[in-house]
Task: structure prediction
Amino acid sequence: MPRSRVRRRRTLRGVEQTAALEAHRRGWAVVPLHAVIDGQCTCGRVDCPSPGKHPRVRWERYQSARPAEVTVRGWWRRWPDANVGIVTGAVSGLVVLDVDPRHGGDGMLARLQAEYGPLPPTPEVQTGGGGSHLYLTHPGGTVPTGPVTEGLDLKGDGGLVVAPPSRHVSGDRYRWRPGRAPDNLALTPLPAWLPRLAHGHHAGDGHRGQGVGAPLARSEGDQREFTRLWASVGVRLEPGDRTYLCPFHDDHHPSLHVDADGCRWYCFGCATGGGLGRLRQAVGRVEHHPVPPPDLPGVTLATDQTVEVDVVGESSHQPALERLAGGRRQRSARLDTVAALEPEPAARHGRIRVLIRDHEVGHLSSGAAERWRSLVEATTRREGRATCPAQIRGGWKRPDSEGRFGVVLWLPDLAEDPMDAGSGPSTAMINFHGDLADFLGDRGPTGEAALPEATTVKDTIESLGVPHVEVGLVLVDDEVADLGHRLFGGEQVDVHPRAEPWPDPVRFALDGHLGTLARRLRLLGFDTWYRSDVDDADLVEQAVATDRIVLTRDVGLLKRAALTQGAWVRATGPDEQVLQVVDRFALGDRLAPYTRCLRCNGRLRPATTEEAAAAPEGARREHDRFQICADCGRLYWRGTHTLGLDALVARIRDHVGPDGGIG
Result:
């Protein structure tokens, strides 16, 4: 690399950290986001849906409490190129209006200001994608996060925005518009009409219709999907504005308000809501029955039980999908339609093409083609064509600067199809990568797995011994998939170990058999929850509630569905165990020995003279400095009993090396 490049990188390094600290000092809740380097998101996903826009850490806690400055410094010391994210809402005293000119947001804002009055000058960001972020003062109470109208989104409570000088996937940086930085201009109070529109209520002069002040008109397809999504979590909608018991929390009185016609909702118990996009996210986080397909004429593959199947598409299919969707690239597009399935006339294992209104829009994956080929061919012979319900969806997989479309089909569920009786189970080829082979015993990292019925990636890999919390990237037929992806037979599945950064600060919860490891982690200064008599259910509940990583020797514990973070402790001896944990979670530069109580995990602080008087007389004669646990009051001093602990700390420091890396 030329010298000039090295010098230039050094001059740019640190601008993100400086900006993050400035935002923190303004009272805003700051979190690190993944960066974009050479056009790729640092999360490592080749089809990342939000490159450079999603957090590197679990950020839910920072929706109600700002991180400490030392935490912010630590984040950017660890990830100096991280983009800067700001959590909007009451926690930051901040609301941001996101204006997207690609979807007419600038024109809509002008029309809204003409109707409701102009917005006074306020700090404004030019986004890397060519839009604008208007920074406004939070008025108190709850401000919704969601769309105001096409091209305008309000980021209120629970929202997140990318801040300057972060880099966009386009290569451009977010930057304050000249004269519109917070140092030059005070934030304008949020006008009352913006959150009202975001809630979906008209705030105009009482007229009805589809003017600027009215809620967005929703297509019949939007309304059908809205109704189906609620039905999938047990809420049967009635027309108009009504209240229901919320399925997303333990609701004992109706706290969910739903506008079925306008496709808007808000739960006062969850303090969240929005439109179709927010509903899809909420439904995706709970276990639910599959969304039923739309009731459309002309379907020949009709059945009461269906499964959703993603169509494999190429970039060459995008123009046809854009025309079918009405000529506009909308991330929120949802168009119910009928798709035709046409097996290619090659061998039995050839592709099955998918067509909508005679436009080819993709094909079934190899596994899905094998699964449904017999039924498709039989239906084609009998009916002349095999057709099924389908939906064209915007914002598919990777909503880049232009937007993408994709297609989902509803095909008959063949899990109990009599045609399959006696044919034996289907199989998929499963390839485990990296140290996931440690879980497989004599099986080996590659081999076929029997699929007795349509099942998910999670169920399949866990049946082979690998817990889901140890898994990172999953590829099914070379396409990125999640753990809920259904397998039908014939697929090739590549499973990679979890490699993305862990939350910072790292906090642990240990099962009852790792008491010595718990004490040693506390000795090194790491927040470690431990109770010798804890059962598995309570341990998982504690870990999820406090955002902790479960450490255990019990692989079965790591397969519990509620668990989101966990790691198998491979070593059996406590010395090897603590070194393994330090290595795996890159803790070498964060050792803080003798700062936590070995008994209760509380923080230690210097003891006062009065508090030290409780120490044994011999200890007071030989020592003049004592520490005390702020939680349980236990006293600590450096005696002969600490020599073994000092030796342990020294061994660990030697292991990680002087710079915190592995020696």
Summary: The first strand starts at residue 29 and ends at 33. The chain has 16 helices and 36 strands. The two ends are 27 Å apart (CA to CA).
